[in-house]
Design brief:
The complex is a heterodimer of chains A (222) and B (554).
Chain A (H helix, E strand, L loop, with lengths): L1 H40 L1 H4 L3 E4 L2 E5 L33 E2 L9 E2 L10 H18 L26 E2 L1 H15 L3 H10 L1 E2 L10 E3 H14 L1
Antiparallel strand pairs in A: 1-2, 3-4, 5-7, 6-7
Chain B lengths: L2 H32 L5 H10 L9 H24 L15 H12 L9 H4 L2 H31 L9 H27 L8 E5 L5 E5 L3 H10 L20 H25 L3 H28 L3 H6 L11 H14 L14 H12 L10 H21 L4 E2 L2 E2 L2 H27 L11 H16 L14 H31 L15 H33 L1
Antiparallel strand pairs in B: 1-2, 3-4
Helix pairs in contact in B: 1-9, 1-12, 3-4, 3-6, 3-17, 4-17, 6-7, 6-8, 6-14, 6-17, 7-8, 8-9, 9-10, 9-12, 10-12, 10-13, 10-18, 12-13, 13-16, 13-18, 14-15, 14-18, 15-16, 15-17, 16-17, 16-18
The chains are: A mainly alpha (222), B mainly alpha (554).
Chain lengths: 222, 554
């Protein structure tokens, strides 16, 4: 009995030492070396691909933002600022529930099922809003023109992109609200449409933050 | 080009890349586990452990090594989370509560990486990088070690010796996982994944104001998370988060990473048993199932049945624009057919049938191609079952790779395949029967049942993905999924190692005209059939109540 206890103790001791040594290799040396190389070679990317406008950091090109008007009194959700291109809905995005001294972006999806009544309602509401917001005199958006990404929440809630179709149906509205010509805004969208990588990887997309920064630049020159 | 064609081309590119890596990586891994030379750094490590890497172990000793190392791992990770509140470098995050700490510790040690917490608001740098990420490496190395021990059981004769656990653990980590992950991490950073140790900081926004971010060693963790088929995300959104998976290319690259070791291990197996054709037969089985499931998933996701998806005009709920439906479908199948469980899109919002495919993928026992190591030993157990069935049909004593599959071997294999279904189904049934656990469901009806079934299937099979609407951070789910993960990982390992020991003791029997040729396509067909029939019979009633009911209604 004593023998087996001491054998077990010896074995657990070896296991603990193995864990500590491997923690040193994979939990200290490995991440530090990768961080060193990353910071030396890809400094901006390793720190979150921040983008600047007018010399000020306005976010990350990888992280989607909202482009809303200030919240009105007595309302739950702010209205979109229709001057700017709008991103996808983010109904799954959460807010801090632990360590509440911070106000961290809490990534997430809605996880609602394809037959969920809540999701059906969300899609209906979003679709109606896209049609209404983007229909301007001389240009009517039909419900059938609205692409799926415009009315669904992404996996992360932080999708920085929209489909070129969704950007396209916003062009007339953005032009009108900013006093620009449709052709000018269309060119802007075209310049910021990224095709599939190597022609077949992923889907074509438009980065909303970069598009809005370009729009802001255009307005400044205007 | 349409999205369907682009999806198919991405699939072909992925298959091409995997094919290129197959022989070099598989042969290299065989050399890693067969070589009698030690690297200098490995000698230092053995000295630190105080173990002689050249001592051969019989199966009970090998198993004791696995269990002791894993037990210490659970305890260490548990304490790290419980002490987070006073650890430096933890962003001033508070300690994690006991039930969640237990669940998370077990989850990462068992290579499951089920997460009942939100990474970005719960785990500081030290726990993520020196705790969770470490288990990403070593739990994968333990899986490969056990698989290699089983392969040695087939390859060796008239001995009970299966190798040295410490040597297998250290070599897998140092020679395979660390170099691979380091290269992959740099590739991910080059594409935009973050890698820093900055604290929580404010970043300006376009419309004014600011948003709060935490930094972290994300790319280095992401790389091993996929390469070791782990799956625990740095952020709650996992590989859908742009900081973990920034571009369409990284998405395809991450799918490659999580498939490459499990597929290549069939080559390692073939080399080590002295017939690469035997490896090809196993590879063909894995590949057939994987490809079939990917095709089914693409079909159902592009067809986007289900009222909400029909209304939206596409299955984009829970999916990122940059990946699209095609690439997300490949990811979903690959992550559930391996033991990864990372997600780049949220399975709960897939079509009813698509969600069913992710469930069924896990229910197959994660063998096509399965987790690092666990996939290989899982499918070899199924191969033993398949030759047994074939033996029954012709009235011959079954044999596999020159070893007789007698009563003892078949009992061990049968025990192995009963464990995970028993855990998954019993825990699901109990949860549904009790009054409070169903309150955790987000969706109602068939989909709500699927959420619970998914949770226990994922935990028992050590996958880790979720129908994430379920609120799993309750004492009930933290405890029961924790138990399911523990038993679902280590009981099968007991039977695998016992089987390995019993095979290694046998003397080989010569091949005769009556021997079932297990390197031929006929055997691959038999094996695919056996896997699908056994899984189908086990889980069909449960699947009918959940995803089939939902999918057929829409």
């Amino acid at each position: 009995m004593n023998n087996s206890v001491s054998n077990t103790a010896r074995l657990l001791g070896a296991a603990l030492r193995a864990l500590l040594v491997l923690t040193l290799v994979t939990g200290v040396i490995y991440p530090l070396v990768v961080t060193g190389v990353a910071q030396a070679l890809f400094h901006d990317k390793a720190n979150g691909s921040e983008v600047k406008a007018d010399g000020k950091v306005v976010g990350s090109s990888l992280i989607g933002q909202s482009y809303n008007l200030p919240l009105k009194k007595g309302r739950q959700t702010p209205d979109p600022d229709l001057k700017w291109f709008q991103g996808r809905p983010a109904d799954g995005l959460g807010s801090n529930s632990v360590n509440t001294q911070y106000k961290l972006l809490l990534s997430g999806a809605t996880n609602l099922s394809a037959d969920s009544k809540v999701l059906i309602q969300q899609v209906k509401t979003a679709k109606a809003a896209v049609v209404k917001d983007n229909s301007v005199p001389g240009y009517t958006v039909k419900a059938s023109q609205v692409p799926a990404d415009a009315v669904t929440s992404s996996g992360s809630g932080l999708d920085p992109d929209i489909s070129p179709q969704y950007a396209q149906i916003q062009v007339h509205r953005v032009a009108e609200k900013n006093g620009l010509s449709v052709a000018q805004v269309e060119k802007l969208v075209k310049d910021h449409t990224e095709g599939r990588t190597l022609g077949f990887i992923g889907e074509p997309r438009v980065n909303v933050l970069e598009l809005n920064i370009a729009l802001k630049d255009l307005l400044a020159k205007h | 080009m349409g999205p369907v064609l682009a999806g198919v081309l991405q699939l072909l590119a992925l298959i091409g890349a995997l094919a290129l890596a197959y022989i070099p990586l598989g042969t290299y891994m065989a050399r890693v586990y067969s070589s009698d030379k030690h690297w200098r750094v490995e000698r230092w490590i053995y000295k630190g452990i105080g173990a002689n890497p050249d001592t051969e172990m019989r199966w009970p000793a090998y198993l004791r090594g696995v269990l002791a190392f894993s037990a210490v791992g659970v305890l260490f990770l548990y304490l790290l989370q419980r002490l987070q509140g006073i650890l430096p470098g933890s962003l001033n995050f508070s300690s994690v509560d006991p039930a969640q700490s237990f669940n998370t510790a077990v989850s990462f040690v068992t290579n499951t990486n089920w997460q009942s917490y939100y990474g970005e608001q719960t785990m500081g740098h030290v726990v993520q990088t020196a705790g969770l990420a470490v288990q990403n490496f070593v739990s994968a190395a333990v899986g490969i070690a056990v698989a290699v021990a089983l392969v040695r059981g087939f390859a060796r004769s008239r001995t009970g010796e299966l190798g040295n656990f410490w040597a297998d653990l250290v070599r897998g980590t140092i020679r395979i996982l660390v170099p691979g992950a380091a290269i992959a991490a740099i590739v991910l950073v080059a594409c935009g994944a973050i890698q820093n140790f900055s604290g929580i900081h404010e970043v300006g926004q376009f419309m004014g104001g600011s948003q709060q971010w935490n930094g972290g060693a994300v790319a280095s963790q992401e790389a091993i998370k996929e390469f070791g088929t782990n799956g625990g995300g740095y952020f709650n959104a996992n590989s859908a988060h742009p900081f973990e998976n920034p571009t369409p290319f990284t998405n395809l690259f991450e799918i490659f990473l999580l498939l490459v070791i499990p597929f290549a291990l069939t080559r390692t197996f073939g080399v080590m048993v002295g017939s690469v054709k035997q490896g090809y037969a196993i590879l063909a089985t894995m590949f057939t199932i994987w490809l079939g499931f990917v095709a089914l998933m693409m079909w159902t996701e592009f067809a986007h049945h289900g009222p909400a998806l029909q209304l939206a005009g596409g299955a984009y709920e829970g999916k990122e624009v940059r990946f699209g439906v095609g690439s997300s479908s490949i990811f979903a199948v690959s992550t559930t057919l391996t033991s990864t469980g990372a997600v780049d899109s949220f399975h709960s919002s897939f079509t009813g049938l698509g969600g069913g495919i992710t469930l069924l993928s896990m229910m197959l026992g994660e063998i096509a191609p399965g987790g690092t190591g666990s996939g290989l030993y899982g499918i070899l157990i199924m191969a033993v079952i398949a030759v047994f069935i074939a033996g029954l049909m012709v009235g011959r004593t079954p044999e596999y790779l020159g070893k007789k599959i007698g009563a003892r071997e078949i009992k061990l294999a049968a025990c192995y395949i009963l464990i995970t279904p028993a855990l998954a189904l019993v825990f699901t049934a109990v949860s549904m029967a009790l009054s409070t656990p169903p309150h955790s469901m987000l969706n109602s009806g068939a989909h709500g049942f699927s959420e619970v079934l998914y949770a226990f299937t994922s935990a028992s099979n050590n996958n880790g993905s979720a129908f994430a609407g379920l609120n799993a951070n309750t004492d009930w789910y933290n405890t029961t999924t924790g138990l399911a993960m523990l038993l679902g990982r280590f009981l099968p390992m007991v039977f695998v190692l016992a089987l390995a020991g019993s095979l290694a003791e046998q003397k080989p029997i010569p091949v005769t005209a009556g021997t079932l040729r297990t390197e031929k396509p006929l055997f691959t067909g038999l094996l695919v059939g056996a896997i699908l029939i056994i899984t189908g019979l086990t889980y069909f009633p449960a699947l009918a109540l959940g995803p089939l009911a939902e999918g057929l209604a829409s």
